[in-house]
């Protein structure tokens, strides 16, 4: 297998766009929520992110090439990799924003408070990386014990909610660009055809999307809000921040925010594990331990060089593989991330190439991941796959609720904090937010366990189904599922027993254990 093939171009555009979105999210949240100055964002945070992206992307490209050489195949696709979106949002609103508000309350200046928030984020990122690295040594056992439908359907729920639906909304909000680019992607990727001259479908979609977007801007149908600016363009080498990390640990941030760091680290391990399983279901069998270990090392590298945001093995391997991407797209993504993060050109690129131009590729990736949850499992396990999808979509729904509240000013600097007084109004409109917020906490565990238990019920292995429910009861009793607390602008996992849910899961286990004695064969539905 060659290092670069034609399909790597399509793969690169999609993966680079995904990472560009994360970089823009970092820039916006750090600037407008945390109050970071440009010197901190462009001088430390983004260069640190570049280091982590280079380490991971180059390793996964080498890993794919090595597997291809070992097996004699030419169709091995590298594991996609990038900045972890759930951790990014969690660490901003559950670690760094509280640290900033606490510093302001203590009388620090806004600049000093922003610096304190950054240090708290560094500690959280390092803690997540250490957990991910440690988890790599036991992850394979978990993978072998979990039905494939449970692993793949969990990813499908995330793909639908956190990837496809948001961009699907965007496509319908901007239908001229959205529909045309989506038509190109559907034609080339699902239709199995290519444009004359060998032009990659992803390149055509982004070029057409960009052209249409600027035409509509010129005609006044779309308002382009980003300003053209070269003030941040320069060279920002990554520099180690060991002193700041030591300062953070001495300041007690690791203990203070352990209730966020621990579950997020565990969730990242499970999420990466599921993506390794997804790759195997698509035909590429990578070793679990080194794949997850390098993910943890990359996150540690991010913290050591100034980034507060963990990295992860991305969902979407089947989609990139179907595009024809192999090892080269991962190398190209590493080069792209390095150029953007070290040159200060993020704002300039965001001005020139709208996200709308490439969103069709991301929608397609979510579709492929969801389809795999049904294509790579036995047909009779399809109900389990559906059940495993629901928690991810529901968790995204909880995110929408909280985002809508922030749009009104709640949970933002200067606004009212989130609190339990919100719940009665939601309940009165048949939107049971309490259930949504409880389901959101540990939803990766929830999805896996419900889907796995359903597979065992379908196979009439009732003791195994009961065991999965008891594991859910144990996780709930430890506070790793369903237990949540209110923060200023979010809901966060609360490492205290979620007894109602623990008792409910225990009741399920009792039902399944008693099933051989209280049931008899009936009609198949």
Query: How much of the sequence is in beta strands?
Result: under 5%
Low-confidence stretches: none
Oligomer: single chain
Strand order of the largest sheet: 1-2
- The end-to-end span amounts to 47 Å
Sheet with the most strands? 2 strands, antiparallel
One letter per element, helices H and strands E, the order comes to HHEHHHHHHHHHHEHHHHHHHHHEEH
Classify the secondary structure makeup into a structural class: mainly alpha
Count of DSSP strands: 4
Total helix count? 22
Please, what is the average pLDDT? 89
The backbone outline, from C-alpha atoms, is globular
Roughly how many Å is the radius of gyration? 23 Å
State the helicity in percent bands: over 70%
Description:
The chain has helices at about 5-35, 40-70, 85-105, 110-135, 140-145, 150-175, 175-190, 200-220, 240-250, 255, 260-280, 290-305, 315-325, 330-345, 345-350, 360-375, 380-405, 425-430, 435-440, 445-460, 460-475, 500-520, and strands at about 80-85, 310-315, 485, 490-495. It is built from 22 helices and 4 strands. By secondary structure, the chain is mostly helical. The model has no long low-confidence stretch (mean pLDDT about 90). Helices cover about 70% and strands about 0% of the residues. It has a two-stranded antiparallel ribbon with strand order 1-2. A two-stranded antiparallel sheet has the order 3-4. It is globular. The longest helix is centred in the first third of the chain and has 34 residues, at about 40-70.
What's the short story on this structure?
Helices cover 70% and strands 2% of the residues. By secondary structure, the protein is an all-alpha fold.
